[in-house]
Please model this.
Amino acid sequence: MQISQLLRHKGREVATIDGSESVRTALGVLAEKGIGALVVSADGKRIDGIVSERDVARGLHEHGAGLLAEPVSSVMTAQVHTCTPQASVHDLAKTMTDHRVRHVPVVEDDVLIGIVSIGDVVKARLDELEEERKQLVDYIQTV
Model:
């Protein structure tokens, strides 16, 4: 399965935040939307970084509560792993595992068009396995 198929099912909405917004604002958006990461982008199209709950937790441990007033750019991960819509779910799962990331923005022609979480990848893989199981059962029943 390709990432483009996965995005067709889950949608292409991506929650973004400007790097100058406060970490407190980022936490509010994460909580409001029930998500684990925001793409940091000044224009909603180009990726400046990504900020996750994990980034904030580590920042709080290191800098204390004063971090909440700091800009998102102070805790974001600037080196973002991305993928294209043509990438396979299998390859993306490997990338996520190898680099220990849970959220990967999807880009086409250097423009943000979606985001895939590890949960999306697991669900897609489970759906594939269920389809294979059904096909095997059908095959066995017809023989």
Remarks:
- The beta strands are 16-17, 37-40, 49-52, 103-108, 111-117.
- The domain at 3-142 is CATH 3.10.580.10 (CBS-domain).
